[in-house]
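[DERIVE STRUCTURE TOKENS]
===
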Amino acid sequence: MDISQPPILNTPEPQKQYGNLIFGSRSLAVSIVVPIYNELESIPRLIEAIDSNMASLGLNYELVCVDDGSTDGSTELLKQEAAINSHLKAIVLRRNYGQTAAMAAGFKYSQGQVIITIDGDLQNDPTDIPLLLTELGKGFDVVSGWRKNRQDAKITRLLPSRIANWLISEMTGVQLHDYGCSLKAYRTELIADMKLYGELHRFLPALAFIEGARITEIPVKHHARRFGQSKYGLDRTFRVVMDLLTISFIKKFLTRPMHVFGLLGMLAFGFGITVGAHLIFVRLVLHEPIADRPLLTFTVLLTLTGIQLFCFGLLAELSMRTYHESQDRPIYRVREVIEANDNVNKQTYS
């Protein structure tokens, strides 16, 4: 027997547990995604705060900072920090695409079991990360932060935000106090195939809800901005409303667009035919002229509109089938598969 080499012991990997979240000490547990746009003064303090708090948790993590076309030197600073910080991964975009694109890039390059998003302006507090992980471990798929004591201007920021949060909650059915808070935690498998466009990053909980996610909200700390200026203003209201309409349509009619366009088309066509029948009666039975009546133009318009809406619904149905089938994307999501033969719960998002 050769005793020159020590025996190889298959010791189990040490683990850290947050409820039903189990992290191995040697596996990548958490990816922290931070969109950066002109935050030169905040970057060093943010990296230090995140590193300090994550070190106290004893979890293996990565910090994914996405530079969204900064022009103040943030790009160069991130490159320098990434060269000396083994946890930091800097993703530099070619130009300023917006926060949604930056988050999408961060999600793509994240490899942790859990993804946490946080703003780069120091207004979110990294000390809240353990709270998010604890809630996520209770069986939730998304944990959203709620800036209960928000440190922003009341007229230009707080009032529009409260109106927007109420409107979004009512239209999506996902009741949250604070959709605009960037501090959120997600199970990675839930958002791995989630595509983001426009300004949809603020609607991630609603998009996750469409996929069947369990969502909760917890109060988190919020600090006044220390450096620079806010990148958001009242001009984003129009974009939010348009994206809200998109989310509302996706939630209700993504897999059945004919139900909305077909119904509208049938109503318009039916009303047009009814008014047309009335005009025919007036002309043929009552022998009255109809050429100068606005109802004639209205009848033609309604009839053509009804036909167009119906055809649009058919095209939308074809597009929907192409959307799902070309990506082999199912129209359902499975949470658990329970097999009686081995009594094992397999959690999957297919």
In short: The two ends are 50 Å apart (CA to CA).
